[in-house]
Amino acid sequence: LLFFFFSRSSARFVAPLGCLVSRQKHTLPDLPYDYAALEPHINAEIMQLHHSKHHATYVNNLNVVEEKYKEALAKGDVTAQVSLQPALKFNGGGHINHSIFWTNLSPNGGGEPKGELMEAIKRDFGSFANFKEKLTAVSVGVQGSGWGWLGYNKEQGRLQIAACANQDPLQGTTGLIPLLGIDVWEHAYYLQYKNVRPDYLKAIWNVINWENVSSRYATSKK
To answer: I need a labelling partner for 13 at 20 to 30 A (CA). Which of 2, 70, 177, 184 fits?
Structure first.
């Protein structure tokens, strides 16, 4: 049975199941800005609850399920290992996705990317406006809860847009390297935008951290 776990610092799939035995516990990453820093586009109450409650819950649950998995490994209980994988995927994915999401946002964000990322967007989507429209449409169209993503297909050497349900991590479920993720769970916007997801998606472009996305793109090509 093949398996994976998540590194504490980068929240990526990094090792086979045997390494779970000596793993460190995951911790909630600090935000690189204050909770109110993204206002008026995302208010402080949302950011505080989203980070300190929702993301923290994923981290805590991930640590619990990994302990249970460690016990199942020690006992050689394959049935228990299999039964724990949905919880690992959900909480591990929640930790991965949010760790990326916070860095994708900045009070100094917005506008358009520059350099290689902008050239790649023009190459693969025709224009930045087309890319923005497509990612917004995919994110609006997520049924229930999930994420809209800009990812990098390393095999094909091109950018792709994708949607993932719930907390499914982009790379672990599609193979695409995550560059920009937009959280469309209601907890990401409901207190401010109610049930009008398109208004939230219109606003979030004002705080996208293109420097971070560009850096992720440069790293993904190596």
So the answer is: 184
